[in-house]
Specification:
This protein is mostly beta strands. The chain has helices spanning about 175-185, 330-335, 400-405, 535-540; strands spanning about 5-10, 15-20, 20-25, 25-45, 45-55, 60-65, 70-75, 85, 115-120, 125-130, 140-145, 160-170, 195, 215, 220-230, 235-240, 245-250, 255-260, 265, 270-275, 285-290, 305-310, 360-370, 380-390, 390-395, 440, 445, 450-460, 465-470, 475-485, 500-505, 505-510, 510-520, 525-530, 540-545. It has a six-stranded mixed β-sheet with strand order 13-12-15-20-17-18, with no helix packed on it. It catalyses: 4 hydroquinone + O2 = 4 benzosemiquinone + 2 H2O. Belongs to the multicopper oxidase family. It comes from Quercus rubra. GO terms for molecular function: copper ion binding; hydroquinone:oxygen oxidoreductase activity.
Length: about 575
């Protein structure tokens, strides 16, 4: 079934003031229907049945304008419960439609449906939606395209055309069976068998050359590529042979344009990239391959597509291939990410909190738990785990949002700490005493309106690596990153308080730190987690609860009538 979309124009004069920010009340309401169902797909010479939305991989594009609203009815015709998350959409006062399973809702059961109310506010650019249940997002995901509202335009010349580019991972096996087996044994989940670009592995993968995705372009025209990393566990380098990339936005927030030959994009991140077809008419490879800076197993393959010029010419027998950084090239990552700066213009201003009311310091670690059965698949007969501030998150059976809203007991604890339980040489010590975390369902409670700073500190425990962290319900300013241990005296002197990028997902460097800052002006229950799916499955998560303000306009909205039940 295709996407059904009805647009209702709600146009009237005036402005709605929310949290001191004016929003034009003229907006559109969109209605979509997403059917979750099993669909057969053939890749890498074999066919499998997998969960999809509307039979598509990737799923359908959700298109809105800035400030619009979308009602998305999700009908689950699959075999198990699923939720959908609208990644990067702040959902002001509306955590009920945010989507993470057993955090803000219980799953939509097979045969049932739920209508999400997706409320857009100041986002403009590219975001994405994905399943937020176990590993089902591997096949259940798609783009969100947020165009400028009527009467406004891009802060750059309007491109001739635009195209969504989604990077993902392909597993020959059933992804739910893969994570269920890993959870049962305590072992590392199987790695993917290939990466895909708009659903196709491309050259040089088996049985993939004929089905390689092709992007037709006209010489002399400029195109806007909406790049999304929907991959499960790997950050990716991306490039186009002989073509420069101009990055103009990240996570639906505009940047000062960056001219580059490649980008680094983590799982969960989105980027808007301008590409001008200024080469001789021919075929040119678009390619992506992982950046990997740890010792764990990973998929060391490459996915490709073809940038194909329109016209009469003899195509090359072997298209030009881009020069991508080495898989372990940390310097290439830094050379790109340190150039990211918010546009910070009159039409697209930023508002960096200059003071801090609440300081939180969070260690980010991969750990081990003691085996609770005859044998386990982790190192030294352990169960692999992960933690924030040495607490490995346990997902409850009843969603935390309902428990908070209805004052239900024995679902979560409201004592997630502002500091780790002990201070040590975070990036130098890795002894066995640090491997074992505590477990629990702990949330951090924050008063409405507080200015919050969170320092994420990577550790050298187990297998350290770069961690892409994501906080639901907010965009925030990435003030700075560095290597080694965060120093409360010297590290803040390196902060960018002038034009830091406003993002929803960011990388904590291997054996390093990253600092974000935001105002807690969105009441609700908001999930915070590593977007490497294996780490999230192991417990590298927590929940931030922002309390209501003093008015109804600064308080959580009442729940919808048809929330999925938790039985």
């Amino acid at each position: 079934m295709g996407v059904k979309k009805v647009v209702l124009i709600l146009a009237f004069l005036g402005f709605l003031y929310l949290d001191g920010l004016p929003h034009c009340t003229a907006s559109e309401v969109h209605n979509y229907t997403y059917i979750l169902k099993e669909t057969n797909f053939t890749r890498l010479c074999s066919t499998k049945s997998m969960l999809t939305v509307n039979g598509q991989f990737p799923g359908p594009v959700l298109r809105v304008k800035k400030g619009d609203k979308a009602f998305v009815t999700v009908q689950n015709n699959g075999k198990y419960g699923v939720t959908i998350h609208w990644h990067g959409v702040k959902q002001p006062r509306n955590p009920w439609s945010d989507g993470p399973e057993n955090i803000t809702q219980c799953p939509i059961k097979p045969g049932k449906n739920f209508t999400y109310e997706v409320v857009f506010s100041d986002e403009e650019g590219t975001l994405w939606w994905h399943a937020h249940s176990d590993w089902s997002r591997a096949t259940v995901h798609g783009a969100i395209v947020i165009s400028p509202k009527n009467g406004t335009s891009y802060p750059f010349p309007k491109p001739y055309a635009e195209e969504v580019i989604i990077l993902a991972e392909w597993y020959k096996g059933d992804v739910k069976e893969i994570i269920d087996e890993a959870t049962a044994t305590g072992a590392d989940p199987n790695i993917s068998d290939a990466y895909t670009l708009n659903g196709q592995p491309g050259y040089p993968n088996n049985c993939s050359i004929a089905t390689t995705y092709r992007l037709p372009v006209i010489q002399g025209k400029t195109y806007l590529l909406r790049l999304i990393n929907a991959g499960m566990n790997e950050e990716m380098f991306f490039a186009i042979a002989h073509h420069k990339l101009t990055v103009v936005a990240q996570d639906a927030s505009y940047l000062k344009p960056i001219n580059t030959s490649y980008v680094l994009i983590t799982p969960g991140q989105t980027m808007d990239i301008l590409v001008t077809a200024n080469q001789s008419p021919s075929h040119y490879y678009i390619a992506a391959r992982p950046f990997f800076d740890t010792n764990a197993p990973f998929d060391n393959s490459t996915t490709t597509a073809i940038l194909q010029y329109v016209g009469n010419y003899t195509p090359p027998s072997s298209p030009s291939f881009p020069t991508l950084p080495n898989i372990t090239a940390t310097s290439a990552v830094d050379n790109f990410t340190t150039r990211l700066r918010a546009l910070a213009s009159k039409d697209h201003p930023i508002s960096v909190p200059t003071g801090v009311d609440e300081r939180i310091f969070i260690t980010v670690s991969v750990n081990q738990l003691t085996c609770d059965k005859a044998s386990c698949g982790g190192p030294n007969n352990s169960t692999l785990a992960a933690s924030l501030n040495n607490i490995s998150f346990s997902t409850p059976k009843i969603d935390i949002l309902q428990a908070y809203y209805r004052n239900l007991s024995n679902v979560y604890e409201s004592n997630f700490p502002n500091l780790p339980p002990s201070l040590y040489n975070f990036t130098g010590d890795s002894n066995d005493d640090l491997l074992l975390p505590s477990t629990g369902t702990k949330a951090k409670i924050i008063e409405y309106g507080k200015r919050v700073e969170i320092v994420f500190q990577g550790t050298s425990i187990e297998n350290p690596e770069n961690h892409p962290m994501h906080l639901h319900g907010f965009s925030f300013y990435l003030l700075g990153t560095g290597y080694g241990n965060f120093n409360k005296t010297t590290s803040p002197k390196t902060y960018n308080l002038i034009d830091p990028p406003e993002v929803n997902t960011f990388g904590v460097p291997k054996n390093g730190w990253a600092t974000i800052r935001f105002v807690a002006n969105n009441p609700g229950v908001w999930y915070m987690h590593c977007h490497l799916e294996r780490h999230s499955s192991w417990g590298m998560n927590t929940v931030i609860i922002v309390k209501n303000g003093t008015t109804s306009a600064t308080s959580i909205r009442p729940p919808p009538a048809n929330l999925p039940t938790c039985s």
